[in-house]
Amino acid sequence: MGKPHPLELRERVVAFVDEGHSNREAARHFRVSPRFVNDMIKLRRQTGSLKPLPQGNTGRGKLRAHEGWLRALIADKGDLPLDQIRLELEEAVGVSVHRSSIGGWLHRLGFSHKKNSARHRDATPRR
């Protein structure tokens, strides 16, 4: 995600619209998209402020509440495929998530699926 527009620009755009100009005129004048102008007007109406809203994942998720159970499963059964972890999670806890969600969760915890390249090397070196 990109950075939010500066608060000063947001205030100037909204003030321009408050002076009686249309949203499209404000967009052309400040060289921003009409959608940005509409969003700023809507944001001020809903929150009373032009401060940017938080971006990105705030840490919520289905797996967050079951982290202990998932850690115990990995410690107990070790190297399980993502689909098997997904099935066991659904059967034991009743939570249904996509396998990529489990993969991302495992990656954030430091578990890697990367193969050990030293183990898979050829016996004879390439020339």
DSSP strand content: under 5%
How many H/I helices?
6
Q: List how many beta strands DSSP finds.
A: 0
Distance between the termini: 46 Å
- The SSE string, one letter per element, is HHHHHH
How big is the Rg? Answer: 25 Å
Query: What spatial form do the alpha-carbon principal axes imply?
Result: elongated
Q: Which bin fits the share of residues in helices?
A: 40-55%
Biggest β-sheet description: none
Report on the architecture of this protein.
The chain has 127 residues and is an all-alpha fold. Among the domains are: 41 residues; 45 residues. The chain contains 6 helices and no strands. The longest helix is centred in the first third of the chain and has 14 residues. The two termini are 46 Å apart.
What is the element layout, followed by pairings?
Layout: H1 7-18, H2 23-30, H3 34-47, H4 67-77, H5 82-92, H6 99-108
Helix pairs in contact: 1-2, 2-3, 5-6
Question: In summary, what is this structure?
Answer:
The chain is mostly helical and 127 residues long. It is 52% helix and 0% strand.
List keywords for this structure.
elongated, single chain
